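WARN no homologs supplied; continuing
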Amino acid sequence: MELTALCTYVITLAALTLAPGPLVAVLAARSASRDRRGACAIAIGICAGDILVILTICAGLGFWLQAHPEVFTFAKYAGVGFLLWMALRMWLQSEVATDHSLPVSGGATSFLTGLAICLSSPQTVVMYLVLLPRVTDLTLVRWQDAILLIVATIGALFGVFLLVILLAGTMQSVLRSSYAMHLWARGMSLTVALSAMWIFVG
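OK structure emitted
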């Protein structure tokens, strides 16, 4: 596993996660309402869901790809198209509803809420199907590579979530500011677009 590929994976994942949207709004609203413990539980639940998706892809997809190596070429260009589509959506993002507060609940319930948010989103699966083949050979994933992927993923996701939770008041102000949100969304959009080019030329 190349360090450059892993670093680009982390940056892309962080940019996609930090893009203005309901997830950021939920965590910011939860934290701003003085329920940081619940917000952290939701974040941990989302991370757990992402880990399950990664392990499933690494364990199951590799065997299928061994029998269909021609899929790699299609997946590469489909992945570039998906990331460019995501970048365009982020670039054109005009507003994000800020009323995403969830009722205060226990840690276990919040964790399950985060897990459900992750596993119920087809975009999560597609995102990892696009990014993982560029980082590691899915036909032969070593346990060391799997552990490194999980650590990198948790670092990217939970790093973003902690930033949102700790800066909840600022995040909510940005979400309410059209100009600030345009700058934010376009910065993340450019990062994702550059990642698409990285996959295309790789």
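Residues 3-93+104-201 form one domain.
OK
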